[in-house]
Amino acid sequence: MFSRFFTLVRAFFNSLMGKIEDPEMMLEQTYQDLQSNLIQVRQAVAQAIATEKQLEQQLEKNKDQAVTWQNRASMAVQQNNDDLARQALQRKQQYAQAVTELETQLKAQKQATATLRGRLTDLETQVQKAYTKKQVLIARDKAAKATSKANEILSQTTADGAMSVMEKMETKVSEREAKAAALHEMASGTLEGQFKTFEGQADVEAELNALKGQFGKPVESKIDTPTKIVIEEKEPVLLEDKQQKEEVLDAEEIRKENG
Fold this sequence. Notes:
Elements: H1 2-20, H2 23-78, H3 82-156, H4 159-188, H5 191-214, H6 239-258
């Protein structure tokens, strides 16, 4: 019992592994993984572009603020307010420093975005090639399966056995044809057939005699005297009575011939 159970488990496991290693399933799964990676890279590129846009906006704002505080410092100097001018210049320097940092960060972000764009382009090309390759391999796998199935069927099919059956059937058909021909030949020799033959000969002789009469030729009858046929009714009779009747008929025929 346990051995049978383990055999079933082993068969199920082998069948499962065969399905897992099926080329079509593996190709589809690999292609789906590439598609998933492509989606993730696209999302990363989109995020990089968004970050780049944000840095550009921040850079422009800080540049504007630096210019604004530069103008305010100039106004404070014109008003002879050095303390206010110093504060304005300090604020302007803060924005200028931010501009410098943002420019550096924006440059690095643009490089990262360009790198991601390149990787996205390469990945898109790989995915397209993988799709084409997948379709070709699946088609080849299906063709190989079909060929293998056909070869398996052919290996199980014996032409000799089929021809042997054909020859036997041919012999059987020939026997039936011969039997049918024999029955037909027997039917042509029946009582009705004999009468039809006789009637046909009589008609021919009658026409021949009519033609001879037209030309004054002597008329001769060549119609064969039909064999006397005794038709017995199907009545139950004793064997002795039947023999006596046949003897009486034979005696009458001999008397007629002698007379």
